[in-house]
């Protein structure tokens, strides 16, 4: 198969979809890898590392799209890429369709095959291609939150762990999944007073067993949320419903109950956000303030640490990319339930129900393309 790796052109996105090591694994199995010139430079991988691994360099993004049977990316295609995508071309990347209707409609129009990292799902319900970036984003959420609690940046002027004779910051984490767990570990390590809210008792029992003493758990409901936001210093949104929009657990009216300088970090912003007042921001202009509450809602947080993120992502995606390259998308999805769950759009039809529901679009079961 011919695999194309375009340079990411989303604002301040320095990751790349494949490391030189990943390219070498594909090439030694007989596949051809084309990578756009300087696509890996932001992650610390110059062009010569790819050519030494057997990949070929192309100067423009249009040439990469034109020649490739499978496009591997990190972030969803943006508007400048829509017309480059061909009918029957396989796109393997993060899409987060349910949060952005124009992207969904553009991919339907292209009649391409869209296989979304974020909905590849194991038989146990895990999301193996979302996990590595969720781990990065969760740890960064605490890191960024601690930074923005500083007074010159708009926060309350609180040190996360305090010092002897002072109280530590109160960190409230909505969701005890991968993002929430990683955020809690970081906040705990900084000696903050941490509470994770979740709706699953088994998950909270597990977290209570593995977390240090300065991390507590509490049932996630409106009553508890409204009570806790009154004294929280840093609130991290870490809610995920696979392939669907995140619910608004913090609504606009709740901001009036927060103290000035409270910091909100919404990691769920890729899927619409779990904080109603959050809207996607960029690394270039990451924050805004509403009602004296600071919002950090960068939609590609792991893009700020591209070396770590690119290696972590390739570690997870490469086994699936090899299956797709060796078998083609249809046979690979027939043989592997996890890849079948990743299919969102095929030949102008939505085949993932949560995406269809988000925009009231016609839904076609994926089995139409996989059976027989």
TrEMBL record:
Gene3D superfamilies: NAD(P)-binding Rossmann-like Domain (3.40.50.720). GO terms for biological process: L-alanine catabolic process. The lineage of its organism: Bacteria, Pseudomonadati, Bacteroidota, Cytophagia, Cytophagales. It catalyses: L-alanine + NAD(+) + H2O = pyruvate + NH4(+) + NADH + H(+). InterPro entries: Ala_DH (IPR008141), AlaDH/PNT_CS1 (IPR008142), AlaDH/PNT_N (IPR007886), AlaDH/PNT_NAD(H)-bd (IPR007698), NAD(P)-bd_dom_sf (IPR036291). GO terms for molecular function: alanine dehydrogenase activity; nucleotide binding. It comes from Echinicola pacifica. PANTHER family: ALANINE DEHYDROGENASE. Belongs to the AlaDH/PNT family. This is Alanine dehydrogenase. The active site is at 96 (proton donor/acceptor), 270 (proton donor/acceptor). NAD(+) binds at residues 134, 198, 203, 220, 239-240, 267-270, 298-301. Keywords: NAD, Nucleotide-binding, Oxidoreductase.
């Amino acid at each position: 198969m011919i695999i194309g790796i375009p340079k990411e052109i989303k604002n301040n996105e320095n990751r790349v979809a494949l490391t030189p090591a990943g390219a070498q694994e594909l090439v030694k199995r007989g596949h051809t890898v084309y990578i756009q010139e300087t696509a890996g430079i932001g992650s610390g991988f110059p062009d010569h590392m790819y050519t030494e691994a057997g990949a070929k360099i192309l100067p423009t993004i249009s040439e990469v799209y034109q020649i490739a049977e499978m496009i591997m990316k990190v972030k969803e295609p943006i508007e400048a890429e829509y017309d480059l995508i061909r009918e029957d071309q396989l796109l393997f990347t993060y899409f987060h369709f349910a949060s952005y209707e124009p992207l969904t409609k553009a991919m339907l129009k292209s009649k391409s095959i869209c296989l979304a990292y974020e909905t590849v799902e194991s038989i146990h319900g895990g999301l193996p291609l979302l996990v590595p970036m969720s781990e990065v984003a969760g740890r960064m959420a605490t890191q960024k939150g601690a930074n923005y609690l500083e007074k010159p940046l708009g926060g309350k002027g609180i040190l996360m762990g305090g010092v002897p004779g002072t109280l530590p910051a109160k960190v409230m984490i909505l969701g005890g999944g991968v993002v929430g767990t990683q955020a809690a570990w970081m906040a705990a390590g900084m000696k903050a007073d941490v509470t994770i809210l979740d709706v699953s008792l088994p998950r909270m029992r597990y977290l209570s067993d593995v977390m240090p003493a300065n991390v507590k758990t509490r049932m996630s409901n409106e009553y508890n949320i409204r009570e806790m936001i009154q004294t929280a210093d840093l609130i991290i949104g870490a809610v995920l419903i696979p392939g669907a929009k995140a619910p608004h657990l913090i609504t606009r009216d709740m901001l009036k109950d927060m103290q000035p300088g409270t910091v909100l970090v919404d990691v769920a912003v890729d899927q619409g956000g779990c904080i109603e007042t959050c809207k996607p921001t960029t690394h270039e202009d990451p924050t805004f303030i509403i009602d004296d509450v600071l919002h950090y809602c960068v939609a590609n947080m792991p893009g700020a640490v591209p070396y770590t993120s690119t290696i972590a992502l390739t570690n997870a995606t490469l086994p699936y990319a090899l299956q797709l390259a060796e078998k083609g998308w249809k046979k690979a999805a027939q043989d592997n339930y996890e890849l079948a769950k990743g299919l969102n759009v095929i030949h102008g039809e939505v085949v993932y129900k949560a995406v269809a529901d988000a925009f009231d679009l016609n839904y076609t079961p994926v089995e139409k393309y996989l059976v027989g």
